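Protocol step 4 of 6: structure prediction from sequence.
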Amino acid sequence: MTSTPTSSISSASAQVSPHLSRAYWSTIPATVPGMLGGYPQVSRVDLKGSYLFFQKLQKLYPSSQKAPSLVDSSESAAGGTGCEDRESKGMLALGLELGAGIGRITSGLLSRICIATDIVEPQAQFASQAPLQEMAGLGRVGEVFVVGMEEWVPRPGRKYDIVWAQWCLGYLDDRELVRCLSRFSGRGNEVNGREGGCLREGGWVIVKENMSTTMGEGETAKELELVDVYDELDSSVTRSDASYRKCFQEAGLKVVKSELQKGFERGLLPVRFYALRVDEG
């Protein structure tokens, strides 16, 4: 799979501007309420739902628990920092959080399943927050990349067991989304500047995003499907399920499990999980 991604771009996605998005986030406080748009009460339910989803994957795909990436020796995921101990046995070696913000998911979820986690976050005021600094001091945060997802390039030879992307992919247009995800599958490695993808064999890309509930206008069945919606407030796009699946396929990733987050209060958009693996077909 070495062909370059050639995704078409939706009209809503085409309006996304990283510059405008970052200008918006530069005005947002580095707090949980800030990260969650004024709904801090969803954080506990969100993290619990994410952990349960990961546990379901482990039960459905038990062979993934025996991958070489799972630590059973003194080798550390963070490059030999010596963080191996009794509690780390059975954990994934190295995770990655895209659009990490202040590290709410890294500290509240990935720290439970990964020995160390790399961070991609374009806003320096978020990436420098105390929880991430404390985790870094304990060897639980690996590398911190203060760049946008569209600019991030994985380090040569660095492989991830799990990649978590939540409430951040709407800040990429369709082409950039496919290009970003292709770095994990290895599709179009001339884009990645490396041989193959940076997802370890048997690894996961987990996407958790809002779903569009807006119907298209028209008379035909095609026109009446759910459509992507552009939000001027933060220059983001809320995609439909069909749009995400199209981008995943073009990036060389296949959906092996998907479900809706449960327990969020009424009035919020539905949130869907996707568990993705490299499509070997």
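Step 5 (inspection) to follow. The CA atoms of residues 4 and 188 lie 4 Å apart.
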